[in-house]
Amino acid sequence: MPALAASAPLGAPRPGASVLAVTQAPGGRVFPIVAIQRYGQGRSMIFAGEASWRWKMLIASADRTHEFFWRQAARWLARPSPDPVAIAVPDGPEPGDAMSVDVDARDAAFAPVADAAVDAVLILPGGEDRPLKLRRAADGAARFTTAIRADQPGLYRVRAEARRGAAVLGTADRYFYVGGTDREFADPRLNEGFLRRVARASGGRYLRPGEVSQIVASLRSAVPQNAAPEQRDLWHTPWALGLVVALLSAEWILRRRWGLR
Q1: What does the alpha-carbon distance between residue 53 and residue 8 come to, in Å, rounded to a whole number?
Q2: 39 by DSSP, 3-state: which?
Q3: Which H/E stretch holds residue 196?
């Protein structure tokens, strides 16, 4: 981007802040120009530059970088802003998973409403409505939760309404798709706990990369497991085909020797 006319000399970033861009003063000192940080349930950003319109005026007319910067900054800042009634569901559930549905109830001033009455409905992929029985969560005064099980893949919808007495605090809708991701590719990080459970359940042993030299000794000392019987058709084996050919050949030779047709 073109140089800014000036910038405000900010101090060092606060703990938890992330500096995304810096600028260098004529004396060689470096100051933050764009810094961001989470604050409560929202996000904050500071732009220390002066007259960002210079970016628009000093670049080509077809260059949309100035608009992209402020548009994406506004979207990033506003994205996590919660509604008075907000629904939270797990990401990437699979069919058969037990999951929790959480509903946060707040008033117009976004203050938690612990005595709210929340009604929620789960709409299945086929369109069937299933009422949800919510209970107050132990970790949140204004959070209500319930457990559901998604038995079939497809698009689910949760609809909730919160009230305080006769006053409606708000409504919320949340869609989530079941069976649309592959967990193996969604989180390819090494999961030693899972691998150890698989090895223990199958009668094997989990070895780290530095213990590769122990594989041969472990295989030799392993106790054979009682495997399930395997059924095979005899006519699929080569020796069965050879036996049939030998019997037919013997019959043909004997019939020729004895003068039989």
Answers
A1: 16
A2: strand
A3: helix 192-201
**Residue reference for tokens 């020796």:** 239
Helix H segments across the chain? 53-57, 65-78, 183-186, 192-201, 215-221, 238-257
3-state secondary structure of 36: strand
For the chain, list the domains and their CATH numbers.
6-78 (no CATH), 85-178 (2.60.40.10), 190-221 (no CATH)
Rounded to 5°, angle at Cα 98 from 96 and 102: 140
DSSP of 162-206: EEETTEEEEEEEEEEEES-S-HHHH--S--HHHHHHHHHHTT---
49, 42 contact by CB (below 8 A): no
Give the pLDDT of residue 225.
Answer: 61
**Tens digits of per-residue pLDDT, 166-215?**
899 999 999 999 988 777 777 778 888 889 999 989 888 899 888 888 88
Q: Say if residue 126's pLDDT is above 80.
A: yes
pLDDT tens string 36-57: 987 766 789 999 988 788 888 8
* Rounded CA separation 10/17 (Å): 13
